[in-house]
Fold this sequence. Notes:
The structure holds two protein chains of two kinds. By secondary structure, chain A is α+β, with helices and mostly antiparallel strands. Helix content of chain A is 54%, strand content 9%. Chain B is globular.
Amino acid sequence: MSAPQDEAPQDEAPQATTGGPAAAVATGTADGGGHGGGENDVKDDGGKGGGLAPPVWLAVVFLLPALLLLGFLVVYPIVYSVIRSFFDADGAFTGADNYVGIFQGEARLTAVRNTLVWIVVAPTVVTILGLVFAVLTERIRWATVFKLVVFMPMAISLLASGVIFRLVYEQDPDKGVANAAMVALHDTFAGGGASYPGAAPRQGQGVPVRSEGGAVVGAAPVEPGRTALLPLLRVRPEQLPEKPTPAAQPPAAGPRAITGTVWFDFTRGGGGAPNAVDATESGLPGVKVEAVRDGEVAGSATTGDDGTFRITGLSAGQYTLRIPADTFTAAYGGAEWLGGTLITPAIIGSYLWVWAGFAMVLIAAGLAAIPRDALEAARVDGATEWQVFRRVTIPLLAPVLTVVLLTLVINVMKVFDLVFVIGGGDPKASVLALEMWTESFGGGQNQGAGSAIAVLLFVLVLPAMYINIRRLRQERK
Amino acid sequence: MRISRRLAATAVAAGMLVSAAACGGDDGDGDGGAGGDGALKGVTVEVAAKWTGPEETNFRKVLAAFEKKTGAKVNYASTGENTDAYLGPRLSAGNPPDVAILPQPGLLQQYAAQNKLKPLDAAAVKEVDANFAPYWKELASADGKTYGVLAKAAYKSIFWYRTAALEDAGVQPPASWADLVKAAGTLQDSGTTPFALAAGPQDSWTLTDWFENVYLSQAGPENYDKLAKHELKWTDPTVAKALTTLAEIWGKGGFLNGGVSGATKTKFDASVTDVFGQEKAAMVYGGDFAAANIATTKAKVGTDAKVFAWPLTGDTKPALLGGDIAVALKDGKGAQELMKFLASPEAGTVWAGLGGYLSPNKNVKPDAYSDPVAKELAAQIQQAGDAARYDMSDLAPSAFGGTPGKGMWEALRAFVSNPTDVKGTQARLEKDAAAAYK
Lengths: 477, 438
């Protein structure tokens, strides 16, 4: 049940969210237009009878189609969303309940918190990464190739990126590349791990072995000259040798030696006698068995192909046989990328992959426009490269960096596709834009609550828009 | 919704040739044979359903049988995945198809409340009474009027298992829940993980099906109906008992492929292929529609992959169904005749012979099914008789029963992560249900 749902949000949610910034642009330009009109009027008054400017009615006629379109497509939806947000699912007036509701309940609060994390972390990291890439590519050969590769993810739709990263973050190291890499790294430094992870003794009374703190120990003490049986269960087929050797009865133990068998005590197809070596059961090779007395290891041996072992050189006394815990510890499986704590950072990671190229290209363009002589002058004055970067490049780049950062902030507020696809509906990954869609169309069927979230997002976008517009105006002056 | 996709996924170049061929001739024969009922010559009936691919082909063959019988001409229209989005505008424009197949009972209730449905006439109601258990009639009724016929069912009270895994462990398909838990233990001892559980947030509907089966068997159909209508609170002791029962399997990390952390991220498709493709586990829950997923692996349905009935957790043999309901949207003899036909064992028998179909119609004999697994499932549905029930989560408001990350889906998913918290899960379910039902 993925494809149609995947498409639906694309149609609906981004539209609703983009309503915000687009509208803000519209009001901005409308303001500018109004202002300009005012100036024209003043000019008209000044140069009476000049008649160079068109009459007001003509200007209105020319503006009318644009105004109608903007009003119909932008202003009306915004106004209606605001009105709708004061009514509940069935259309009854509820005052500000929908707005209060955004901050009530665990799921909603998680969405609010995640949105804040996104706004703070994602644009900053993307901008820094873009800056680093842009500065580095200035100095390397093959810079175009590098830029092309970093920019490439921008050409992939966010939905497809989400599907890709779902696979990357797959829990099973055999499927997910993130965990495969972590397991490979871990095993390189910490050793390959256990030979029989998950294997365990039989549960219940009267069994010859039992589990003790991860290790498996014999239930009864053994003296030299005797034999012992150490049956194990839950051995996975892939842990057995390709051609398992049938388990053998323990060989006769000479003086000062203990012999025994470690084997997989499960007859294929069932029916074997428990705790007895049956003909078709396989021995477990390569298991280390220790003879322990008073907490000290007095001797040890490793089992052969048929599962038998012989511990020699033991003095008289009572020994407990032990298979150490590291034989059984489960293999390292990597991180739980899509679990409660890592899921939002993991999705932000995929966002970096997509947007780093965008930041890099814009910043690189800004970098190319910096006057070289400023940098040269600083170098001639004896500034180190770091100082040049910190004191000259960054200040000159500041306007570009602001644009990139603000664009990303606005973009991050409506992040939806990645969260929808990678999170798969997990409430721990939810953000406001996703919550808005779920509330209105994705099962909640409460367009009032959805509208309230949309209005909140719109309000959150406004400061970013305001800064952008003010900066544009300053530049024009 | 999901069912059709699953089947469609296996579609191999389904043609529309069949329908083209079927629409043409044969009118003469049909008229002659059917006598009075054959008076529909010249009447055109439009039917809308979401089916595509092989499902559409098969349905068209059923419609062809109707054409042959009555002499009417039937046009098929595909609604796409979202039936409401297709029918809504056509209903508003006053130009609906004569008959539509609705994927959820909720939609029937919604349209009935808006007075957009035409009730079945006496002859069609008689046909329904003769062939369906009262529960199915009631499901397709509103305000005492019968509007619909459950045309096609999905059967959800089964486990799929890998034959080789159970044989290796020397385990027989279990009949009771205690046997199932015991069999799972034996499988684990043999080195095979017993279950693949699809508890990923997008597919937690499988968890609701687990719960519904256990609850239906344990608490009985009457309590099931009350809980489905939220007349019984989720804090009821029967719910606690069902959750405790589920925890006997969900609560053992070693029983689940990938452990709890793996299971809570597994999608339904992956849970099926983990069992039959990667052979990482022995059993998986999935309705009859899981056959389509198994077909993507090397395993053969019927030999490598088999089903056993949901083990008893109480006195009732659970039989949980989902399915599509036919309704008439326009007056007219054609629409009513087609509804009557769809309610008849005749239509079900034709359909059953084509495959990919299950009928809740008690007069469609299991022998009519061409596919051995379907035959077995049909027999199970018939055995269940009046105790069969519709999927509870599909009867509930979608905010509670059909939304990833919300309501029943997420509450049960959280329970898989924390299977000792019966009380907390109940409180959460009740809180979400109270908000959704209103």
